[in-house]
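job 3f2a | input accepted
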Amino acid sequence: LLDALFMAIIFCLLMVSTAVLLGAIAGSSGMSYWGINSSFRLIMCGCLLFGSPLYYGILGNTSQNATWGQRIMGFMMVDARTGMAPSDRQVWGWAFYRGIITTCCFCVGLLFFIPILNDPRKQSAFDSWSGIMMVKK
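job 3f2a | predicted structure (137 res):
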């Protein structure tokens, strides 16, 4: 939930800066309203698709093995088999699953958190697919 808040703040800042930048470009080049609107939508769709996996992947590969929200809550990612730090491949796989599925189909993406209720380790489908486990620091 905290990570979603951080991503929403980053996305809003990105939207405002993109709108200002496109407005400045349109004012100097005489771009039409439809051209600006189309460009803005294309840029925002790209940010939605790639922003979430980049957020989770980059922050998951830090020395703390946790995103900002996970750090605040006192969690870190570990390899489910060894208990050591996860590999880059595992973290990026986890980021891809979590980011793309929840971004592209938000309502259906929330169903991937239901295994938390039935799993003895209390992990989501994204965690089990990538072989990652969240543990308290």
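job 3f2a | The first strand starts at residue 75 and ends at 79.
job 3f2a | closed
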